[in-house]
Design brief:
Length: 591
């Protein structure tokens, strides 16, 4: 070393030459490194979105123009100009021309297996009259000759006098083949004579526990089975074969994908009916095209042994498309059948407060064990008393040493007592809302009748909850109701019936949410509720490329027209799972 240095000093010319070589060599090395790094970081850009309105939903709610996707991840978010170096001849470049790019939607409450299976039945939900129902069922029966039972769903109580459809309407078109048609609210089944024969139901059959067979004055069943009486035909008529269930689940998820949904919580995975296994099966075959969290069903009719079974099924691998780390608990029923659990009695019935589903002491024991195993509690709560008890339950878990940020949630939230509104934030309980119900639609008239005007006006206090610091997540409850998040957002921000315009009646105008609130509810908050906020829910470098393109910037759309915006492309981990004709220019879709 010393000698070399001396030499250098002695012969400056030689030193200069050496230095030139060194500089050149260094330059070559640097260029090679730059080229290598350039290719390492840029060459594999698979999809480059430019010129978009990218609403990132990151912590600062920043807006960007461009997003670069490599494999299943987002590797760049920023300006179109800075995205250009990522483009190679292999990249798919999507010029959004101002269209909106959002994180994939998260539906925090949907019955996708049941909904998917129902897609293979006759869907009456868009129809209004018995004549339309019968025509559709006749047509469906003819088109599905191999189906033993003609099955359908979606008729409404208002279509029939007393909410009582008669069997003769079905006998007329289906004299020999059994038919069973579920009411839109899921609490009654309309059947024909062949179905009653098949189920062995006659004038002599007593009403089953918790149910009613509607009859004429002679005691003869007339063709409507309520609540517990639905069990007389439900299994025979509606239980799908494993093939139908498999196919139904795939179809259901495809429908969700078409509305921009990339993640959802299966709201009631009945393990006794193998829902969890079906999901696993679809996942194992590589056909699960969404990130799914199963809420395993806690059955009030089963004994304590089920707790161990549920714990045995616990799986919180959030990197996987499928996990099972929530438990679904019903705290009460529904207002329509006066089973929602209220703090004050039903109007005109001073003794009737509704029905709790569980003995709360029994539930407390279960909840502590389940929470200790890692489960999040997903609690159905419609009446204000049920909401109150659900919050108490979480408080109890905390006092018993449970995780203070267990991410439990209460779903539906028709009525929330004034003193309970601030408890959501305090107890880290998320409000899982179905905002499409927060409008004065016909189906809500029953709430006005059963709850009275004052409580009717106070239904769905979403803005108040938000202002009290509650985290809100959005869910559809599909197939009980529509699945389209954009239509649900429209109702949340207008509190008016979609399609009736700006001057139509409003339900609790003070409880309107902002569009930004609803986007958060369907993206980052939904991701948080599925413990996947580190992976999804916002558009940030390093997160999974669960992305959707919407045909227009929702922030420029009039509130009453949000539902008319269209999803053009849905990516799940960088793979297209839905593409409309616009996006077909970029991707070839197999389905
Ligand atoms: Zn539900």
């Amino acid at each position: 070393m010393t000698r070399g240095r001396l030499k250098f000093r002695k012969n400056p010319e030689y030193g200069m030459k050496k230095m030139k070589v060194a500089i050149i060599l260094t330059l070559i090395i640097i260029s090679a490194a730059v080229l290598f790094l350039y290719h390492y970081f840029h060459a594999a850009a698979d999809i480059v979105f430019i010129n978009g309105f990218v609403y990132t939903v990151n912590e600062n709610r920043s807006i960007a123009e461009a997003v670069v996707v490599r494999k299943n991840k987002i590797i760049f978010v920023g300006s179109s100009e800075n995205a250009r170096p990522f483009i190679t001849e292999k990249s798919i470049v999507i010029d959004l021309q101002g269209r909106m790019l959002l994180p994939g939607f998260h539906d925090s409450h949907a019955h996708v297996l049941e909904g998917g299976v129902s897609l293979n039945m006759c869907n009456l939900s868009a129809m209004k009259t018995p004549r339309e129902y019968v025509a559709a069922l006749k047509d469906y029966g003819e088109k599905n000759p191999s189906k033993e039972w003609v099955t359908g769903f979606g008729w409404s109580l208002e279509a029939f006098p007393g909410g009582n459809p008669h069997k003769i309407l079905l006998d007329d078109i289906l004299p020999d083949r059994p038919a069973a048609v579920m009411c839109g609210d899921g609490h009654s089944i309309w059947v024909n004579s062949a179905a009653l024969r098949e189920a062995g139901v006659t004038a002599k059959t007593p009403d089953p526990a918790g149910g009613r067979i509607e009859r004429d004055t002679a005691g003869e069943p007339t063709g409507t089975l309520r609540e517990g009486a639905m069990e007389l035909v439900r299994k025979k008529a509606f239980e799908p074969s494993i093939f139908e269930a498999f196919e139904g689940l795939e179809k259901g998820i495809a429908l969700l994908n078409s509305y921009g949904i990339t993640s959802f919580i299966e709201a009631r995975a009945i393990t006794a009916d193998s829902y969890d296994l079906l999901y696993r099966l679809v996942h194992a075959t590589g056909n699960l095209r969404a990130r799914v969290t199963l809420s395993l069903y806690l059955d009030p009719r089963r004994d304590d042994a089920q707790i161990g079974e549920l714990i045995g099924k616990y799986d919180d691998d959030r990197e996987s498309l499928l996990k099972a780390d929530q438990v679904k608990i019903f705290l009460d029923g529904v207002t329509e059948s006066k089973t929602a659990w209220l703090s004050d009695s039903y109007t005109g019935e001073p003794e009737n407060f509704g029905i709790p589903i569980f003995d709360m002491d029994r539930l407390k024991k279960y909840a502590v064990r389940l929470e200790k195993a890692g489960f999040q509690l997903h609690m159905h709560a419609i009446g204000d008393r049920a909401v109150h008890e659900g919050l108490d339950l979480v408080e109890y878990i905390h006092r018993a040493g449970g995780n203070r940020e267990g991410r439990h949630h209460l779903v539906h939230l028709y009525l929330v007592g004034k003193d309970d509104r601030s408890r959501f934030k305090r107890l880290h309980v998320t409000g899982n809302i179905q905002a499409q119900w927060a409008c004065p639609a016909g189906f809500n008239e029953i709430n006005r009748k059963y709850l009275g005007g004052e409580r009717f006006a106070a239904l769905f206090p979403f803005r108040t909850l938000r202002d009290e610091g509650a985290l809100l997540a959005g869910g559809s409850d599909w197939p009980v109701d529509i699945v389209n998040p954009l239509e649900i957002m429209q109702t949340a921000v207008t509190r008016q019936v979609p399609g009736q315009g700006g001057n139509s009646p409003i339900l609790g105008g003070g409880e309107r949410l902002d569009l930004a609130d609803m986007i958060e509810a369907y993206t980052i908050n939904g991701a948080w509720l599925q413990r996947r906020e580190g992976l999804t829910g916002s558009i940030e470098t390093g997160k999974l490329a669960d992305l959707i393109v919407i045909d227009k910037n929702l922030f420029n759309v009039k509130p009453h027209e949000l539902a008319s915006a269209k999803i053009l492309l849905t990516l799940l981990g960088g793979e297209p799972v839905y593409a409309d004709s616009w996006a077909h220019g970029f991707f070839r879709m197999d389905r």
